Amino acid sequence: AALLWGWLLLGCSWGPGPLGVGAAPLTTASYVLDDAGGLGRQFDGIGAVSGGGATSRLLVNYQEPYRSQILDYLFKPNFGASLHILKVEIGGDGQSTDGTEPSHMHYENDENYFRGYEWWLMKEAKKRNPKIKLIGLPWTFPAWIGKGENWPYDYPDVTAYYIVSWILGAKQYHDLDIDYVGIWNERAFSSKYIKLLRYTLDKHGLQQVRIIASDRLWEPISFVLLLDSELHEVVDVIGAHYPGTKTVPDALLTKKKLWSSEDYSTFNDEVGAGCWARILNQNYVNGNMTSTIAWNLVASYYEELPFGRCGLMTAQEPWSGHYKVEAPIWITAHTTQFTQPGWTYLQVDGHLEGGGSFVALTDGLGNLTIIIETMSHNHSQCIRPPLPYFSVIPQRATFHLKGSFYMVETLQVWHSRLGFESGNSSLFQQLHPLKVLKGSFSLDLNEDEVYTLTTLKTGQKCGCPEPPPPQPFPSNYKDDFNIRNPPFSEAPNFADQTGVFEYFINASDPGDHVFTLRQVVVQRPITWASDADQTISLIGNFKWVNMTVTCDIYIEKQRDGGVFIAGRVDNGGIYVRRTTGVFFWVFADGTYRVTGDLAGKEILMKGVAGVRDNAWHTITLNIQGTSASGLLNGYPLWENVTISKPSNGWAAIGTRSFEFAQFDNFHIE
């Protein structure tokens, strides 16, 4: 014993991390990894969400090679995050956090499986990893589903038909097999609807599609599954959101797979990485969850929208090509590069004596992967739920490999240390392999570290070229929407916040306005958030102060139709109803208004413009300092309107209500 203490005091450790002379005696503990008495639960994979909503909006218009590099960091096996699961929003035309995503059926008699960008993203993910699992989940639904009610379950057969058509369309038009489907994100579930969804899936030969419920809390779904044997039969996975690494007794009693089907949602700095490292392990250690899915995949939306930069990496500048591979990507790699869905957790307690946790997984073919995290409390707080205090101290962990692992002689070692204040982080570095002597090895662990110890030799950290430097959004920007076969249904950089703005071909136009951008949602959708009563799409730089916005506009709705252009727009996402700015409206009845808000309550100026419906007009908004003026067809219409707030914001276009309207030759300076 005296010799042992001597070794410890001298800081001579058996692990990769040297301890420094004169260090205090370490907490020491032993942990046994054994498969002889059976294994734990089957591992289902680590994933991320695109959508909920419009979180990948700006990714699609990155130029190559940068767009492919970003996709490689997310999906390419043994490269970066190497994700096992991609979960996407089934667009429903409504606001679902950072924007709206278009539905494949805006109206009852309408079907189009090429809208939005989730189809493209799923194909890009599959291209890189054919084994990636795909999940679809709706946040909102087009209005016709509810036949006038803001509720998707009054006509469950209609809703089931709508969701199953999305799954069939994925296969028919994109050769994508959807593996799992959810019910309604973070809202009520209907047992009748879930049973009908299963019946409808089976009727269309989609027996292999599994059902996740209810993407909210553990209850009441777990309790209901225990009471309703028919429902128990059709739900395959209980998915909870932000469970704080804990589950509930009812959920365990169902014997179902338990997933954290949405988690993380934290700013992607080092604290975000600490949060992610902690929950990736502890969701299993504390809560028996065999899959954890991050919201969101990549922060590809304007940063000033809600939950800016809450993605595993950041790609919010398609105009410059700049992106940033954030620390959470490399934390993900610690698990994903050395495990696969279908591997099995070992039965271990998983708590480390000095704080932190470990999990161990095997493929059943002799491979073993151990992931250890020692995240401290203040460096691993997620956005929700609140994190009770705990302490983590430097410690020595000794692992004893038994059963079929006794013969393991060396383990590959991958290590991350989050530096925080010190700034000397090291992310996903390969260290010297660890020798295992007679089934045992020891490791010295400091706080805020992640170790992966594995028999696999396939791990990789790419030494890729640096992306271009960041640049602000161009200060002179034009789009005439003249594109015959656009790769996507939406114009680049426009971020729809209520309604959906799509490329449109005006077959009847004599020539100047054949190709336009059209607002196409004409009834308020079944909402998830508080969509505005007007439609609006944002673009540009939130820091803009002085600007001139010009656009050709075409009101389609007679009598009470109307459109606007705007500047200094200060809000979007789930807060879109409270958006303020400088809004220049023209209406089909020949009048105009200038308002300080999207809702149109704060009227700064009004009068007669002589605009009519079903004709093209050019409107211009000029904002300089505390003054604004407006032009109609190149002639001054109003001027010297005093602007007090907001002091800066985006540009925007939109409509008075859920109505058809067209926009062309958009220009901002």
How much β-strand is present in the residues? Answer: 25-35%
* Total of DSSP H or I helical runs spanning 4+ residues: 10
- Rg, Å, rounded: 27 Å
- Described by its quaternary structure, the protein is single chain
CATH architectural category of the domain at 45-318:
Alpha-Beta Barrel
> Which fold does the CATH topology of the domain at 45-318 refer to?
TIM Barrel
CATH top level of the domain at 45-318 is Alpha Beta
Q: Given the helix and strand composition, which structural class is it?
A: alpha/beta
Helix fraction?
Answer: 10-25%
Major sheet strand order: 2-3-4-5-6-7-8-9
Which stretches of 5+ consecutive residues score pLDDT under 50?
1-22
Number of strands: 35
Distance between the termini: 76 Å
Principal-axes shape call: globular
Domain Glycosyl hydrolase family 59 catalytic: 43-337
EC number: 3.2.1.46
Signal peptide: 1-23
Enzyme class: hydrolase
Description:
Pfam families: Glyco_hydro_59 (PF02057), Glyco_hydro_59_C (PF21708), Glyco_hydro_59M (PF17387). The active site is at 186 (proton donor/acceptor), 262 (nucleophile). It catalyses: a D-galactosylceramide + H2O = an N-acyl-sphingoid base + D-galactose; beta-D-galactosyl-(1<->1)-sphing-4-enine + H2O = sphing-4-enine + D-galactose. There is one protein chain. By secondary structure, the chain is of the alpha/beta class. Among the domains are: 45-318, TIM Barrel (Alpha-Beta Barrel); 477-668, Jelly Rolls (Sandwich), CATH 2.60.120.560. Strands 2-3-4-5-6-7-8-9 form an 8-stranded parallel beta barrel, surrounded by 4 helices. Strand 2 (45-50), helix 2 and strand 3 (85-90) form a beta-alpha-beta unit. Helix 2 (66-75) crosses helix 3 and helix 9 packs parallel to helix 10 (327-336). The radius of gyration is 27 Å and the shape is globular. Mean pLDDT is 95; it is low at 1-22.
